[in-house]
Amino acid sequence: MRKESSAEEIKSTFLARSTVKSADREHRRKINFNIGRYDAAVPKGKAQYTDLMGVRERAKNRKWRALENLDRYLEDFEAQLIRRGAKVIWAEDVTQAQAAIQKICQKKNCRTLVKSKSMVTEEIHLNDFLKTIGVDSVETDLGEYIQQLDGEPPYHIVTPAMHKSKEDVAKLFAEKLGTDPKATPTELTLTARAILREKYREAEIGVTGANFLIADIGGIAITENEGNARLSCAWPKTHVVIAGIEKMIPSLSDLDLFWPLLATYGTGQQLTVYNTLVTGPRQPNETDGPEELYVILLDNGRTRVLADPKQRESLYCIRCGACLNACPVYKNIGGHAYGTTYSGPIGSVITPNLQALGEWKHLSEASSLCGNCTEVCAVRINLHELLLHNRHAVAVQQQGTMVERIAWKLWKQGMLHRNWMNLASGKIKNKVVNGVATGWTSQRGALEFPEKSFNQLWKERKKNR
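The structure assignment produced for this chain is given below.
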């Protein structure tokens, strides 16, 4: 009973947020402006390819290979890192990941921690957790820093502050940092730069995520445009990497495929500005880099998804964010309405499987099923099919409400008996369907059926000939 109550509460919150945001024209103007700039940039990135579809297919096949052999690749990855002096920690869930971080912070007597943009750290609620143990965790990506100052989670996988205009940021900086309310973007960036440089000097630990984990060399590949992740890797004496196990790719040679593809679909660049490969802590013959490297490999439901032959495909995702920018639902309700770490189409696919299907089933229903997400996916994940697969799983597991189950059984009987449908006039159909489909009519106009069905009109036409 408590579980159903929780599911209804989560769904109600989603509906309330999405209703407010879809009616907020200023919000829509801002995200459409920023997505419009993205749409203008992406074709330039794609111009570097002569066979883009072939490249996307190759990338999908490489991710398929990585996940089909994930157990072996993870062991190879671990062995290579340990050989070079790194420490690898396996975390089954959020609690274990947080406990590992706490242990490292206590060992290093950490008071200040700097971190680069990482969705997996949002997944384990790292900043909130560190606050409870007395560690000041500072976001160093400019977008993430803006969001942290405003007390908000990231709005978008790639562009955390996409929903804010430059005027919004200037106002926020004026309130939080005492800058000029009319400061330009350049001035605001320089202010953030000066503050964050001091944080790097103070920090005992630097935390990053990983765009890719490379099995054959035990490498962590990080791609960015600001250089903050590279500073988080190299400046503090201890570097902690937190990554989902699905980030694995087989070989170093695969980076020439994935790095340009991620840049193209993520930001429209041919290649991002900074691409870093971390293969361990500072070695005896090296002059810089961290003294210690910890890599936390997070499961948190991923092996459960891996066990589903259909949903396994969702783990191919390289977090480029292209599906969010293409989704008509995301463009209207924005990232925060979802109430999850991962929003948009990919979030609607993976959240019910990483967390609880019954509590998050509404996300798979909040879709037009237009297929645009599949069309733009860098690694050709069949996202719209996986959304349907989630809906099917809900029906099979009887996670829907009693009213839903009865309604669909009645609908099925009606569809199986053409004569039954013909007996009901348009008025009867309107009354029955609009009485049941309250979820539709609460947001849209009523469904209007004609007095006679096409089947009836066709029979009459043949009869009169």
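Interim note for the steering committee: The two ends are 60 Å apart (CA to CA). Residues 71 and 384 are 28 Å apart (CA to CA).
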